[in-house]
Structure formats: structure tokens, C-alpha cells
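User: Predict the complex with adenosine-5'-diphosphate.
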Amino acid sequence: AQLMARGLPKQKPITGVKQIILVASGKGGVGKSTTAVNLSAALKSVEPNKIVGLLDTDVYGPSVPLMMNLHETPLLTRDNMMIPLVNYGLQCMSMGFLVDDRSPVIWRGLMVMSALEKLLRQVAWDAVDYLVVDTPPGTGDTHLSLIQNLPLEGVVLVTTPQAAAVEVTRRGAVMFQRLKVPIIGVVQNMNTVVCPKCHHSLSLYGHGTEALTSELGVDLLQDIPMDPAITETTDQGKPIVVALPNSSQAEAYKTLARKV
Ligand code: ADP
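Assistant: Here is the predicted structure with adenosine-5'-diphosphate placed in the model:
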């Protein structure tokens, strides 16, 4: 990976975007997209004067159409740039806007790379201050390509605390460190469950994530509890930060946004 990052064309900013923040995870299903979507909404909420964009680069399993309730096909500008779809005040772009919702995407690596190229260079972002980039699970071609082509503020890693998830997160983190991408920190998702009756917070897995962050010398940015309200709002296409802005869950994402 180190060899691949060297000697390549210079990183070029995205037109219309000031800062680019990646959201990545080692494993799938740990809540990376949920975090990316809510982080975007939370950034907008804590800094209302800033313009926030959300770019979903997961070609095989795009989440933004569902989570942001956006299903139209983007219009084009006169010079063939795709105009982001907007909901909840966030400019959004996703490969999911360009392919049929119900058909499987069967693409070879090269097709994925040319699709990614379009998502990076042919979107008419409108004065975006923070672009949150949701990435596919794991660390693969898409990540390498993003790192090689874009100037990045840094990456937020999302993990659940199970040993298996933490282990893959460690490998991902080492890759980002080797490629000189600043790790903004780690979000621990779904470690705790709060009892709806007595409000006791139960920790499910223990301290795997803390061991990882101290080993890597990076911050544990935020703990996001496992909460049915998060799943429900996500499935309804409205991030909890927007749906229940005064909830403790929304506050947790806003605290995260202040640290990013
Ligand atoms: P990933 O992007 O890592 O594959 P997702 O963000 O798609 O993961 O989340 C996977 C599932 O877990 C979704 O159904 C989502 O609603 C749910 N989920 C994510 N985070 C939480 C949470 N903190 N509490 C409850 N459900 C969550």
C-alpha cells in the first residue's frame, strides 16, 4: 500500500469543497453509515453557518438513499456535473442515486474505480465546508484511491467493541497511519444498552476499543449506545439528529461533531 501511495499524481481538492473527512470501519454492519449520516447532520446542527455535504462511496451497498430518504436521479449542470440531492439541509451524493435500487450491482474493480472517479470529480458541490465521506467496509481499493487522490483532513474510524471487529479496525488504522492519513479518532458504537425502564446502562463487551485507542495513540471520540430509536429513525430515512434533535442520542452525535 505504501508503494502504491508514492509517486502518484498529486492529490487534488474537490471543486466546491473545503474539508474532506472520511468515515471508515474494519467490518461491515458496525454502524459506519449511521455514524456518517448523523455526523453530517450533527455538524450542520452545531455549526449552522457551515455547509455540509455527504458523499457515499459504497458502490455495492450504498446507504445514503435509504438513510437520507433520497430517491431521485440527480440533474446535470450544463457542463455535465451532477447536482447533489438535498435533504435536511445536507447536500448528498451516492452511487445509489445512479443505479436501480433493486438490482444487484455486479461490477468488476475497474468499473468501481471509474464510478468512484465520477463521484469525486463530476459533482457540482455548492460551497461545501465539510464533506463527510462514507466509505465501504474494510480497507480496499476505494480507500486507497481516496487517499491518493484527495487532500484529507482525516478519518473517523467506527467500530463495535467485539474482539473480531476491533482486530480489523486495528489493521485499518495501521494502514491509515502508514499512508499518513490523520486518524481523528475512533467512535465506539453499540457497546452499551440503556434499559428503557430503569435507565441503567449495560455494557455488552468491555474494553476492547479502549485498548485499541491507547495502543494506537488515538482518541476515543464518542460512545454511541445501541438504541432502537437509532435503528428506527435510520430506517425511516431521517437521522436521529434530525428526527429527535433533543434526545441524548442526538447529543452524543453532536458531541462527536464538536470533536471532529
Ligand atoms: P455499516 O455502515 O457499518 O455497515 P450501518 O450504519 O448500515 O452499518 O448499520 C447497520 C445496522 O445497525 C443498521 O440497521 C442501523 O440502523 C443499525 N445501527 C447502527 N448503529 C446503531 C445504534 N447505535 N443503535 C441501534 N442500531 C444501530
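Residues 2-259 form a domain with the Rossmann fold fold (CATH 3.40.50.300).
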